[in-house]
Model the fold of this input.
Amino acid sequence: MNPPADDGRSRAVAALRLTLSLLALVLLVLSVVPPVSTYARRFEFVEAIQFCLIAIVVPVFVACGAPWRRLGLAAGESPRVGDDGTVEAPEGIRPVDRLALARRRHPEPWRSVVAGVVYLAAVVLWRVPGTVEALGRHPWLLLVEVVTLVPLGLVMWLELVESPPLTPRLTRPHRVAMAAVVMWVIWVLAYLVGLAHGAWYGGFDHTLASGISVSADQQLTSGVMWMLSGAAFVPVVFWNLIFWLQSEEDPDDELYRLVRQERNRARGADSGSG
Done:
């Protein structure tokens, strides 16, 4: 029987995950309907808010919200790891359970690197001037942006955060490195806009009637991207770094353990030959 404190903590975590899942849905809808969709075609900083919601905030909220069991995509029981290291499937396995099993059976880090690289390629593609200007001329491209960035962002975030029954393939130090690299790339894109001498993106309203100059709009754009991406990635960096420093084994202890294993194998081999 679980202690009351554990039950209370579990309920709090479940409530938080439900809240994040609902927020993800609300923010996704708000980002693609007026007034956000309308003002995003007029002002760069509003378009940057829209982009960050679609590419960063919504995916991380879905990943942290872990709505898989509520949506019927995962069973109530997580995959089990046997004493011999084999992964056992629970009864009534469902699509996300199968994905969790596949990730446990194939934990190669290169898969996480590919997810990060593809996500960054999509982010750069949707932030280059030609694409942003095309979004202003063809509003239907917003749907393409959503169906591109939300799934790719979700796949990337599943390599950084727990989303039961899914667990990241990367170790904590590697999660820190991946989160930092992705964040820095987004920051570079933001700085390019903020430090530009002329208009970085065309097609936005910078007339006297709009009340905002090119320089002010671009600086706001840079600040929005820096702030929202930092708010998403910095906690991941520090949480994994602190948890790793506090919980991971001492490297010397790991080295001693490996040496002892080698000695035991050598003794076993000598005994067998004797």
Observations:
- The first helix runs from residue 4 to 32.
- The CA atoms of residues 136 and 154 lie 25 Å apart.
